[in-house]
Amino acid sequence: MSTRPFLRLDNIRKRFGSIVASDGVSLEIEEGEVHSLLGENGAGKSVLMSMICGMARPDEGDIVYKGQLVSFASPRDAIRQRIGMVHQHFMLVPNLTVAENYILGQGSALSVISDVDTVHRKIRELSERYALNVRPDAIVEDLSVGEQQRVEILKVLFHGIDLLILDEPTAVLTPQETDRLLSLMGDLVKDGKTVVFISHKLDEVMRVSNRISVMRDGRVVNTVKSAETNARELARMMVGRDVRTELPRDPKPPGRVVLSVENLACRAETGLPAVRGLSFDVRAGEIVGIAGVSGNGQTELSLALSGLLSVDTGRVALNGQDITGLDPAAINARSFSHIPEDRHKHGIVLPLSLSENTILQRYDQKPFAKGGILNRRAIGEHTRDLIKRFGVKSRDENQAIGALSGGNQQKLVVARELARNPDFILVNQLTRGIDIGAMEFVMEEMLRQRDSGRAILLISTELEELFAICDRILVMFHGEILGELPPDRNRLDELGLLMAGNKETAGTCGVDKRSLGRL
Amino acid sequence: MDDIISLTFLATLVGAAWRLATPLIFASIGEVFSERAGVLNIGLEGTMLVGAFCGFAAASATGNIPLGLFAGVAGGMLFGLVFAFFTITIKADQIVVGAALNLLGMGLTAFLFRTYYVSTGKGIEIAQPVHIPWLRELPFLGEAFFRQNLIVYSTILVAILATLVLYRTSFGLTLRAVGEHPKAVDVAGRSVLGYRYAAVLVGTGLAGLGGAFLTLGHSNQFIEGITSGRGFIALAVVVFARWSPIGAFFVSLLFGLFYALQLMLQAQASIVVPYQVLQALPYIMTIITLVVFRGKGAAPSKLGQPYEMR
Question: Do residue A173 and residue A224 come from a single domain?
């Protein structure tokens, strides 16, 4: 084998407007290794890889692949050179079949589609070889997210690649599906392929990679062998300082029931049932987690609780008062706070200032308004106070909130919701799209709220987040609660089985992980 | 009242329905292509008018109907090119540009017609019905289906061809993908903008053909606003047909039936309903259709959205 690296990036620079996404990145990938790119959101991992697969061109710097200087004008050029990428947002057309997605863009535009059987056969062969369980005639939109990802991986293999780039592939998977994927990476390497694995999850990166490159602020800060490092060291490189992994909490038992949900059912926007008869309580001084693969009714549950989606049957009571079917304003007024999943849609109004966003629910109340006229001074004071207490990084309270980073936007949402002194806090995806610093902060803040006697329902797809701060975890699948577990990392297998809808086997844990991949 | 239910009446009705549906069939199948690629062209009305005028002008100059039809298609596509440039390249709002082109189409054709033709009052020779031997003699069916002109017959060919292209060719597959997930097409190495241009040109070419039929195969004259809202009805047809070419063919026939029905009912002395109500029938059906079949489910998910290059 030659000592020349398989892929070498030399001083790559890329700017988008005033944002520097890649600030002189140099990196070497060796043939036949799993090389992880570790970094926080916005560290520049995806942008870097998009330049390797032809989605973007570097402003400066060289890409040397198999000993040759390359420059890709399009992803098609990259695929011709046997480089394929599985994107975080799938590049699959939902209303087409798997096979149709694979032949999209192949051959002459004017050709008649023939030879479907050959394509189907090739897909079946590849699917069997890597145990991916992909049916060529399935319509993509009928498949689960995990299945779609396997379709996407197989698509790249179908086109024939030597270098596979996986961008945050485990974000949408159950723990078992993640195990399957990590072992698939091993299989691919055995077949002589090279894998670049982009992730921000330390444990997965440690398990699967030969070498790890850590990115921060558009640069590679270090490349290390996974055998010679540990999670703590990686976290420090990623954030630039020490990170606390365990958060302390008060062992006090929970108090009275604050939120009580009985037999709640509602339908998704599509008219299909999304929540099917849920019942649970949340008590004062506890954080109840709801785990589940996204799309299992969590979104609808949180919308229904906060009054944004109408309820078909069932009852929601807050502090003993029935709040079912009330509008969001009335629910908010009953000491209910909501930190929504999609803050851009339900949390804040991007072009409005921090001040205006702070009083979105209370713009008509004293002291913020009097006789229909806004009291700018009171609003400004209140906002400045929140900015200071929650460490929101901004120019001033009059800046548009859209100009802030995701982490700072989320801090302001959290600040606003907590400032209303709620008894109950509904949180959906507390840490989505925010950096580790902000993540630590909002999680600690949630624990403080818990310790001061508030009831919190935390819906999340990030199991780490749930393990870190919940008192108990409910697992949601197809709109139902399949089980309840303590936040014990040793019971991850059981949690994963429940997330995959497997109630029977979840009780008898320790089953062969291999057999679960097909779930 | 006997007349209404007689077999002859029904046969004439069906025959007229097909004839009256013809411009709708062309325009709506064209719009299916455009919308499947994610481009909502509400400028169909203006495009059809341009097609109708160009067809009339070319035929009255040369006396050649095929040439007139060709001019109608070309005129429609030229108009489509303007729409495509503004909506696809410049990424202007499709509704605004479409509305502007409707106004332009109406104004431009009226102006040109008044300037060059209105004083002559000259009509043209329109396409003659082709009677298919034997079949035309069939009771009922003969009158209904086998005494049309070639343009009307060609709607069947267009519907079949459109279906084959959309579902059985690489072009059609990519076109459908462009309206659903353009980025996937981009990543697969095809030009999203190129496909959208192609889709709009197919759409406006067919709309131009539909317009040209009005002057070359139906009336022998160009009249200001001769399309009388057919471009808008074609948009409704596409929704009702759930973006399928064969569906567009049959739904257009249904609308053709409403046109034919209102015409023939007007001629019935025994009907006491004011004729304006009957005339409004196709438009009322359009509104009802849109309310009942507004179904979002089948619409291409990126309909109306410009594609931002990576």
Answer: yes
